[in-house]
Amino acid sequence: MLIADLSRPGRNNASQAPAAVAVNDLPAHLLRKSAPDLPQVSEMDAVRHYTRLSQKNFSIDTHFYPLGSCTMKYNPRAANALAMLPQFLGRHPSADAATGQGVLACLYELQEMLKDVTGMAGVSLTPMAGAHGEFAGVAMIRAYHDARGDAARTEILVPDAAHGTNPATAVMCGYSVREIPTNREGDVDIEALKAAVGPHTAGLMLTNPSTLGVFEKQIQAIQQVVHEAGGLTYYDGANLNAILGRVKPGDMGFDVIHMNLHKTFSTPHGGGGPGAGPVGVSERLLPFMPIPVVGKAGDSYRWLDEKDIPQSIGRMSAHMGNLGVLLRAYVYARLLGRDGMHRVAEFATLNANYLMAELRKAGFEVAYPTRRASHEFIVSLKKLRDETGISAMDVAKRLLDKGFHAPTTYFPLLVPECLLIEPTETESRETLDRFVDALKEILHEARTDAELVKGAPYSTPVRRLDDVKAARELDLTWRMVGR
Amino acid sequence: MNIPSDLKYTASHEWVRVEGDGTVTVGITDHAQDLLGDMVFVENPAAGRKLKAGEECAVVESVKAASDVYAPIAGEVVDANSDVEASPELINQDAYGAWMFRIKPDNAADVDALLDAAGYKAQVESEAH
Lengths: 483, 129
Known about the structure:
By secondary structure, chain A is an alpha/beta fold. Chain A contains 15 helices and 13 strands.
């Protein structure tokens, strides 16, 4: 039910309505003649409506959410409370830096902490999402080659295991994309990489650990191949949680990285936002960082802009990026400290490897059995589908009935009928065990009552959705007029 | 596995049929549609477009993924099947009936270098594990 359906003429809240304000500085022809057609409901109806909607949510606050590659970890309330201080909320982004030394200090320290934990020479906080950060990163690669007059570099290399945003980013930055195959072990095929690089190579985009949930063993060799060809290397920070504080992308030799603060630094996400995708750069890309960046001179902070960084690729957002997200990430980082960040990676990988081992014992087939999991791993249900007709999607839907958010399904594309499972470090062993039990039950159901699994879910506010119809007839609007 | 013996194949899961007039018809294999799942969108190349062998020239999108379709051989597009663009599910129903586009080959002999049914079957099986 939509709130408009609850609307009854005249059922409005006079006590909460703003006082009528005489608008006399707009031309008469621009003033509307009648009130807008807004829902008219009592306060209680409004409260009940939105409370019910919130109860339909499947969220990290209510359920285990092992959505691979998305790092759905608990969002500490302290980060929220501090980022919501009225001094932050009430500050105008264009206000003078002299009156905002506190917020600038927070952002400066966040830049420094991110530099430290990633081993990069500089960090700009302004990109407002992971893909936005990717765009900034590849735009810097382009700016670097352009500044050297090296116009022959027209190609970005992307492993076939990559997130789809990588090739999309390269194309958005005017590059063509060449796909590099993955070997049986889940690593980049180094011989194929050697054959692909050359004077046309602008760079390589790599996720490490990869989307296959394994750490790229030949990272040094990969760096050498690309750098010797004159290309730069881009680290996609999608899986930074697995190595946070343990391995630094800067030490691996990357020239540019983006971080998903909404994942690794635990700010609320899901449903499309809001995110923050800061970029970190090596020395040679420092001149191209997106502006503004917070600078510090003595004890005072100020925004560095095009006067300070004249070769900058420019601005990624209207002001300083998603301040509310950056502040939450800052508080999270301060709460953890350096030692805490080490433990994030340790427990994220421990939880993933525990879950992987328990699921193997329960009869599930993992995609890369010879490899230790990073912070996530892949189960392939191909044999189950061949045997029972039950697909990865059926299992995912049935998990909802058991009180768990489904893992990522059908990604990465390299593994048929796959579930990509990422438990994160914030879940207890008891929760992981309950998840294993639920999957064991579903395995049993698939073999004894396949129709039950195919019909799932039964307990959710809406049942199985029509994916095909949704994709073909996407309609996100609700029209009050002409209903 | 449904792999008709009278067709030619590519490792990237296109099927190719040589027509009586020397043109070749291209679609995606039954195995490919099975991996992709329910189709929601098909984009074919325009007639008249010159294709290089291996060039990305069409897109199929399912509820799981969007996937490029590659030109099996070099040539010029002479026709595209608007029926599969209007009703992408035709590919799920009959992958070998729901052709996507036709090419006039630059060199008719190029087809000979493509995989035969046994070669494609071996290719699919090697990918399975």
